[in-house]
Amino acid sequence: MGGDTFPPDVNGAASFSVRLAAGIASRGHDVHIIAQSHDGRQGAFREEHDGQMLTVHRLKSFRYPLHDWLRAVYPWAIHRNARRILKAVRPDVSHMQSHMLIGRGLTTESAKRGVRVVATNHFMPENLIEHTPFPRFTHRFIAWLAWKDCTRLYRKAAELTTPTKRAAAYLESRTGLRGVHAVSCGIRMSDYTPDFEDKPELRIAFCGRITGEKMLPDLVDALARLPRDLDAQLDLIGEGDQRRALELQAQRLGVADRVHFPGRVSDAELRRILTRATVFAMPSTAELQSIATMEGMASGLPVVAADAMALPHLVRDGENGYLFPPRDVAALADRLERVLRMPREEREVMQRASLRLLEPHDIDTTITVFEHLYRGEPVTDPVTDVGPLTSKVREQFRVLARRAKGAVAE
């Protein structure tokens, strides 16, 4: 398996790669990862990830100068390194998680040797172009070139996947390829702790990269528009190049004391922050699935999200949260206020709806589908759509909320 991000990197592609690799290893398979080195060492190392021992082939890398943390391997060495690793490992299948550098070498050299290739697309030009030196008027042309480039590589794959049906349709429209599988990145819900009790303060949570495509200035602006009596707090969990700009924006808007930057935190700390939150917010317009939003839902949070890309697959307007028109700050503030002012029982209905909608995204289903794809066996894409929240189910959720409230009172 190879891609351009892997732990200790923190982003959606890295999270998916490590969960899938560990899940496959837990079923008795020998999993090797090609990833960038963060300490200058190059070689094969046994590393523990997500409770499993994996062989990680670390390649020398350098920090990409236009990005605050992304490390890139040396392009002129990637094919040589891929050949060396493939010769040593002799894999049955190669899985490309990114087409930029490591995945490019892995896929090209695997195809030459007749090794089966499976590719997963996490790529959207909007997430990368801002980290290039090209002027804005060239971005559309650069995006077109980027899609042409990744299409050439994806044609070498026997199977192509992406996390959602909407992302699959988007990928097919951009590349002209057909038969893209929609396979959720998956999540293990038991790792997270929902809290249905009244909480001492109202907190809005976001987690992810603190970068431009996440539209976080809209979220800070929306916080400033909320009525002061709510005294809502905002936790922006993660690191990125926009942090200083957001700190200055919060000062300018008079909400610096209510905007918090926990930074890059451990998994345990992330789950603790999500458990204590009241609502999860995702203003991004470029999400192919959004593992971060799934983590918020697994923590039993209502979600306020932009009505863009894959987010409507996770958020049912009025059921487990609200959608708002992308970049509409007034609408974002309105939807947040609706959730924050809800009586506890009504908010619990949304919390339980989040858990209900997330159930089909179980990581074990994802692992099974990829096992079949690796073997070249036919698969049926997992069904992740859940029927609408009926009045009967909604009432059952209300009954649970009233019972819980009564038990606390006693």
Automatic annotation (TrEMBL):
Residues 198-352 form the Glycosyl transferase family domain. InterPro entries: Glyco_trans_1, Glyco_trans_4-like_N, Glycosyltransferase_grp1. Residues 10-188 form the Glycosyltransferase subfamily 4-like N-terminal domain. It holds the Pfam family Glyco_transf_4. One of its GO terms (molecular function) is glycosyltransferase activity. This is D-inositol 3-phosphate glycosyltransferase. The keyword Membrane does not apply.
